[in-house]
Write a structure and sequence with these properties.
Layout: H1 2-25, H2 33-41, H3 97-129, H4 139-144, H5 150-176, H6 180-186, H7 200-219, H8 222-229, H9 240-250, H10 256-259, H11 268-288, H12 297-306, H13 316-331, H14 336-340
Helix pairs in contact: 1-2, 3-5, 7-9, 9-11, 12-13
Length: 350
């Protein structure tokens, strides 16, 4: 307070002196001193150093995170299209149930957040690839013509599918929180979950159900029907039992139709045709790139699944060998539907 009083007195004294000088120096001989003295008299007290405020920085000039990079591998899509690693805590001997389940739920939430974040990064990559695809072409046509690589093709396909599942899954995640894995697994909501948010138990459960349907379909004598049919390249002319087998083998329609004993004939031919087209262009892209040997372990499993090959309980080396045989059969002009309706042990040897 004392220092502030001294400052005010000093300013008042300077103001009075300057006014006296202005009154005495308004003479024709010294006209140039009047403005200078007037400006001096109207100056405020000097600002103390501790009263100076730093200039706020503009947030728009802050460094932004780098944009997602274009995948360099033309065969395998980015790993961001796959579920991230799930690391669950191990229970300690002296740990309480509340603490253990709290940490487990927190690990699942972290896993789901990473999966949703990966979908956003994939969506940014998709937006960069979209202008390259002509409006008159489908994704399969773009891949066949070399406009897209296999990695880009599967990136777009998987991202579109994951983005379409975000709204419903987001509602489930907001309501259930840490209990989302229990709701998804035990209530059968796997179809509403994006691929990047599939937990390992969910993936194995879906594969087990699909392979069980495939085994049941083979028991119904589909192999004999296919052998008697001959050329099966024209999907639109396939018999209904073969369409039903391909649909069950690839999971193209719900298992609820099997329980009531009805085949959804109104959508099945179109879905089988689209599945055969996807497999055809994927075979072409794999052969155009580094072949089956260039596929990563997870991509080998996914490629085998899409071709109706079992993967559960098999080492990656065996799955890769069956996929190699598939590619050999395709080089020999064996139709895709014919291979789908036979077990690998029944494929032609010569």
């Amino acid at each position: 307070m004392f220092s502030a009083l001294q400052t005010s007195k000093s300013c008042l004294a300077k103001s009075q002196i300057s006014k006296q000088l202005l009154s005495t120096l308004h003479s024709p001989s010294l006209p140039f001193l009047a403005p200078a003295l007037y400006s001096y008299s109207t100056k405020s007290a000097p600002v103390r150093p501790y009263e100076l405020k730093p200039t706020p920085t503009n947030s728009s000039h802050q460094p932004k995170p780098p944009p997602p990079q274009k995948p360099t591998d033309t065969l395998n899509p980015p790993t961001s299209t796959l579920p991230p690693p799930l690391t669950l805590p191990t229970r300690q001997p002296d740990q309480s149930n509340v603490s253990f389940y709290y940490r487990t739920g927190k690990a699942y939430l972290t896993f789901y957040k990473s999966g949703i974040r990966a979908i956003y990064q994939n969506y940014l990559l998709l937006r960069r690839l979209r202008p390259r695809i002509p409006r008159s072409k489908t994704l399969e046509q773009a891949l066949r013509d070399g406009v897209l690589s296999r990695a880009e093709y599967h990136l777009i396909r998987r991202t579109r599918r994951d983005v379409s599942r975000i709204p419903l899954f987001g509602i489930v995640l907001l309501i259930c929180g840490e209990f989302t894995p229990l709701v998804v697994v035990f209530m059968g909501l796997s179809g509403a979950v994006p691929r990047t948010c599939h937990i390992p138990r969910q993936i194995d459960g879906a594969r087990e159900k699909l392979e069980a349907r495939r085994r049941e379909s083979f028991r119904e004598g589909t192999i004999t029907t296919v052998q008697e049919t001959g050329d099966l390249e024209d999907v639109q002319k396939l018999p209904k039992p073969i369409l039903a087998h391909v649909g069950r083998s690839l999971g193209l329609y719900s298992s609820l139709w099997d329980r009531i004993g009805v085949v959804p004939g109104f959508l099945l031919p179109w879905r089988v045709r689209k599945a055969v087209e996807r497999i055809e262009v994927d075979d072409l892209a794999i052969g155009r790139e580094r072949g089956v040997k260039g596929l990563s372990e997870e991509e080998v499993k996914l490629a085998a699944e899409e071709r109706g090959l079992d993967v559960l309980g098999k080492p990656v080396k065996e799955i890769r060998s069956e996929l190699d045989r598939w590619m050999e059969m395709r080089k020999r002009r064996i139709s895709i539907v014919d291979l789908l309706c036979r077990r690998p042990s029944a494929w032609p040897r010569n």
